[in-house]
Write a structure and sequence with these properties.
The structure is a homodimer. By secondary structure, chain A is of the alpha/beta class. Chain A contains eight helices and 14 strands. In chain A, the strands form three sheets. Chain A has a six-stranded mixed β-sheet with strand order 1-2-4-3-5-6, sandwiched between helices. Chain A has a six-stranded mixed β-sheet with strand order 9-8-7-12-10-11. In chain A, strands 13-14 form a two-stranded antiparallel sheet. In chain A, helix 3 links the parallel strand 5 and strand 6. In chain A, helix 6 crosses helix 7. The interface between A and B is large, with 64 and 64 residues.
Chain lengths: ~325, ~325
């Protein structure tokens, strides 16, 4: 393992401290532990809190800020944050208007967020959660019951954050989150693994001529393994699964081509070149495209495609002003 | 070589087409070749054109837009654009207020930009250029006479773009560029190579326990090779060179920690954790920090540190509104 780190045991803490030092205008760490909150919060809005294992940077601590998240609770690499830390986050940001928890569908995360929500509810805090499960690759997985929450989470957080920032009610904000979740689908593939620092070796092995179709964001198994093939063919395979899951015909969509980490923008653009043509040929209109590392798996080489079906409300929320360390929208 | 591409010969064209399809509101490709321009330009300003080899995405085509560049001319991977393409770009964006060429210091680029500028000047176009050479790692290199232009280019383009957008004169815009160049210094290191598609194999070899200090953005040799060491120690080495080159004592600075491609944000934040402490201990005040892949080398694992000394004018220009595919500033 060759990484720009110091002691393995310090990776998460040093990462979080380094992030806070880089973006003090956006992120404050609570003294009680690794709980990150907006330092100046708009108190006239519903609060949004997310959390999850580290290793997906900038997802999703990088999206704390105006128009997106109010708090993020990072766990250790690929490990859910603990209920007590989530609970501390909820308590600090609670302003009486309700705290909505944005939970990616992994068994450990769902369990810990539900426990934290119970603890907060006992304190009289208005709290609820939504579960993001955009990955069409597998029905159940080694990490989940049901579908996994992957890169489409960025789009769900953007939509929900904009709705909250607009001053909408708790019920309206939750409905916007559920609408985004109902309309977003993702699938990915990878060609090289990543190494969790504490493990010290790659999370899986893969041949020089192989690709894992439907890979998870922790390197967990996907749909099947195949021989490496041209980018256009991979796009066709992923799109076929996404487009057969819900009806995109005639719809406007947001496209997110997400790098797993080591895959450069050069390749994401090549992927988009074919993807845009295929969507046009299928009567699907691209409203906005995002290319980059929005929810990574450290240095894994791979990518995912997310499509979000849009209506007028979702377009307006997608375009709404946002200002966070990793994403800004005028 | 395992990459998400189709035919090797199509890499640059498909990449550029995919970028234009992703960001039609920001980038238009000219019919004459791979020349990228802002589709709607502010005609009340000096025009800025840059160019260089591909493989550094989002640098710098990703910075076409309001408050940054008006045109970018991408060459093949790690290859200067040709004089005729640069000339076409200059002609299209020329509005009589002058075209300033933002050239990174590589022998091929400097030669081709100077030839293009001569061609444009013969047409009566007001044109001049600045040379960005922020890398303190080597005095001359296999690719340059004098220092190389590396990630600090992003900061120079941001400053100069803001000055141009403000409606400043040609002479004032050039002076702002030169001021940014005079005040920015960069040095990097890498631990794994990248593979240019046309070459089909990694640009250099490096042991599992080795690091190249002072690496160039094409994988060209740096200052020296050493055994891999903790991140904090690498930061100390790079900072020592940067801080001894010009006097940063008591100054405010912008910090750019740039990923060479495969190095994840997790590691950039760990780097920043120590970097911020060292600067504080040396009486250097951090005004703003940028972490991410601003000028990459495809999938190379590595990073660079850039420091830009600031005064009131440079702070205002750094903070000015920008809207481009890869960087937005409210």
């Amino acid at each position: 393992m060759k990484k720009f780190i110091n002691a393995v045991a310090d990776v998460e803490n040093e990462m979080i401290q380094g992030m806070v030092k880089a973006y003090p205008q956006y992120i404050k760490k609570l003294d009680c532990g690794n709980v990150l909150v907006r330092p100046q919060r708009n108190e006239n809005k519903v609060m949004l809190l997310s959390g999850g294992g580290s290793g997906h940077e900038p997802g999703h601590a990088g999206y704390i800020g105006e128009g997106m998240l109010d708090a993020y609770v990072p766990g250790a690499v690929f490990t859910s944050p603990t209920p007590d830390m989530i609970y501390e986050g909820i308590k600090v940001i609670d302003n009486g208007k309700g705290v909505l928890l944005m939970v990616m569908n992994y068994t450990g995360d769902v369990m810990n967020f539900e426990m934290a929500a119970e603890m907060a509810a006992e304190d009289g805090i208005k709290v609820d959660h939504v579960i993001i499960n955009d990955d069409v690759a597998v029905k159940d997985s080694t990490w989940t019951t049901g579908r996994r929450g992957v890169a489409g989470t960025f789009l769900v957080n953007k939509i929900t954050g904009a709705k909250a920032e607009s001053g909408a009610s708790f019920e309206e904000v939750k409905a916007a989150a559920e609408k985004a979740i109902a309309n977003v689908r993702t699938m990915g593939a990878a060609i090289s693994p990543c190494t969790a620092p504490a493990a010290g070796r790659p999370g899986f092995e893969i041949g020089d001529d192989e690709i894992e179709i439907g890979i998870g964001v922790h390197g967990e198994p996907g749909t099947y393994r195949d021989k490496m093939m041209p980018a256009d063919k991979i796009v066709d395979i992923l799109l076929e699964r996404i487009l057969s899951d819900i009806d995109f015909n005639g719809r406007e969509v947001a496209v997110l081509i997400n790098s797993s980490g080591a895959t450069p923008l050069m390749e994401l653009y090549i992927i988009n070149n074919h993807l845009a043509d295929v969507l046009a040929s299928k009567n699907i209109k691209i409203y906005k495209t995002f290319c980059g590392g929005f929810m990574t798996s450290m240095e894994m080489a791979g990518f995912s495609i997310s499509l979000l079906r849009l209506d007028d409300e979702l377009k307006e929320l997608l375009d709404a002003r946002a200002s966070t360390p990793a994403f800004t929208c005028l």
